[in-house]
Structures are given as C-alpha cells and as structure tokens.
Amino acid sequence: xxxxDEQLLELDEFDRLHLDQCxxxxxxxxxxxxxxxxxxxxxxxxxxxxxWQEIQKIQNERQQFADLKRTRLQLTRWKIGSLxxxxxxxxxxxxxxxxxxxxxxxxxxxxxxxxxxxxRYLQQQLDLTLETKNQxxxxxxxxxxxxxxxxxxxxxxxxxxxxxENKSALWEIRKQLVDQLLSNGNKIQxxxx
Amino acid sequence: MASVTGFQQQLSQDLIRQxxxxxxxxxxxxxxxYADACYTLAFRISGNRTLAQDVVQEVFIKxxxxxxxxxxxxxxxxxxxxxxxxxxxxxxxxxxRLHLVGDDQVENHPANSLFEIDWLNxxxxxxxxxxQLNTTSRAVLLLHEVEGYSHKEIAKMYKKSxxxxxxxxxxxxxxxxxxxLKQEQKNALN
Lengths: 193, 190
Description:
- By secondary structure, chain A is mainly alpha-helical.
- Chain A contains seven helices and no strands.
- In chain A, helix 4 (52-98) packs parallel to helix 6 (138-159) and helix 5 runs parallel beside helix 7 (164-183).
- By secondary structure, chain B is an all-alpha fold.
- The radius of gyration of chain B is 19 Å and the shape is elongated.
- The A-B interface holds A 2-6, 8-10, 27-29, 31-32, 34-36, 38-40, 42-48, 50-52, 54-56, 58-59, 62 and B 5-6, 24, 28, 31-32, 35-37, 39-40, 43-44, 49, 53, 56-57, 60-61, 64-65, 111-118, 120-121, 123, 126-127, 141-142, 144-146, 150-151, 166-167, 169-170, 173.
C-alpha cells in the first residue's frame, strides 16, 4: 500500500518508515522535495519604499492618542476628587449650625479655618497645574488616590463629629499631599495616612 | 554560497534585548532586516501590493508594542513571521477576499498521482503560476510549503479543521499541475 499525496505532504513517523522501504514512494517524495525547493528558492520581493519613517509616525500618533485618552480619564477622576473636597467644605459649613462641641478644643477654630483656607488655595493651584501639565506616572496617580481617600475621611470626621484635633490632622495630611503634587510630580515621597 | 535572506536571517539576542527596552534604533535594525520578508509573505499570499504594504506597517507597529511578549523561546524571526502570517490572513478575512472552502465542498482527486513526476520543473514563472490559484489555496500552499507551517497551525489560523488545510493543499498542487501541463501542451502545439 503506497502513501497518499496527503501523507507525502506531511509525513509522520510511520510514513517515514514506509519511505525507507518503498522505492516508488521515495521517488514521489523526492519529486515533492524538488518542488518545495523551487518554491522556497523564490527570491524576496523588495518593499516599494522604505516605510520605517511612516511606521514611527503612526506609532507616535497612536501613543499620543493613548496618552490623551489617559489624561482625559485622569482629569475626570480629578474632577470627582475636587467634588469630594467641595463636599467636605460644605460639611464643615453646615456642621456648626446643628452641632455644638461638647469638649474643650485644644486647637482653635481660627487655626482650623486657616488650615482649611490653605487647602482650598492649594487645591486651586493644583487644578490650574493639571490643566497645563500631563502627569502620567504611577506615583502621581497613587498620590491623587490618597487625596481622594483623605477627602472621604475629612467628610466622615465632620459627620461623625470627630475632635478638632483629628480634623486638623486630616487637613494637615491633605495639605502635605497636595503640596507634594505641586512641588514635584516625579519625585513624590509617600505620606503615610 | 548563497547569502541568507528573508526569515532565515537571525539577529543577536543583544539587539532584541535593546529593542525590548524601547530603543528605536534597534527596532529600525529589525525592520531593515525583515521588512522585505514580511512584504514578500504578505504579497505572495494576497497578490495585493497595497495590502502587503499595510501588513508590513501593522506588523512592525505590533512588534514595537508587543516585543516584551517575546520570551526568547524559539527564533525571533519565527515569532515575527507568525505575526505577519496572521495579520495577512486576518486582513484578507476582513476584506472578504478569502474564499473559505468548507470541507464538504472540496473535490477529490486521485489519491497518489500528484508527485509521480516533477512537473514543476517545466515552469519558468513560479510567481505567475501561483497567481493562478485562488487566495485560500495560494495562502495554504505558501504557508505549508514555503513557510513551514503544519496543517494543525494553518487550521488554527483559519479557525478550520486540519482536513481543510490538507485538502486545500492537495487541491492547490492539483491545480498547479493542471496549469503547468496545459501550458506544456500549448507550447508543444506552437
């Protein structure tokens, strides 16, 4: 029984054993090999033009587009963060109306208000910076998430009527985080919350 | 001694590592080495110069973005060739130039008559001969016979069975033989 054409085209172990013993099939396999060599000897066709510059251009465009998408996403997240700050400030404004502190504060209202004002000012600076710069590094992203987290803690502190010391500590941490974002986006030190 | 060309060329591991760090000069070296091989593969399969140029462009953009996925397992050229072959087949599929023949649509031919003589020896224009095949037959023949893909790999590319690849290949050879013999008869009469 001779090998079929299909078997010759992709030999398995048993087919090879058969070839060793069958002169007729071996001849057919040799013919096929000659044809393969003819196909494989076809020369490469040269590209009509050197397209490397074009590839670099397309790659750069796609990279810029990806960066732009990322920046837009960051801005959206940051807007959410700013809203969280606004919510914190609203909570502060409403808090004195319905609540009277039941303890003697060790930090004055004036100090706390000054700290809040400083935070508000830094936030404005940061919003301006974000509109002009493209910050994409991981440390920067992490720091922004820390700020969003501290905003939630501040809101909680007011709603749960925490002590002024606690609130002040939270505002201080927030101030440090925004300070760091403003001063050096690439060499950010981690502030432990 | 014939010089090494196409996907047979090999690049140093150092150059690949450089490219993996994002070095664009290293990528340019890779491009200069394999661009013609990619173009040849895409053009021979598709028979379309514009499509082949687009394939080359997309292949090297993929190489730039995915080179860190190359794990130094097997030849780099083999990895690159696979990207080029897949890109070509996918483009042909998306442009519906590819006539995917169902297993049940393929005609049979005598099972062991294709290689009794080396009929291809009489052909002086292999490229012209290949162009007489439909795109699918040409693609399967080139992938199997020139690029060294197995039926299993080709079936995976086409998302078809292995028998699809086997039958398409036999059928392509049968068609080529028919064309060559017809041409020989024509030449004999002239």
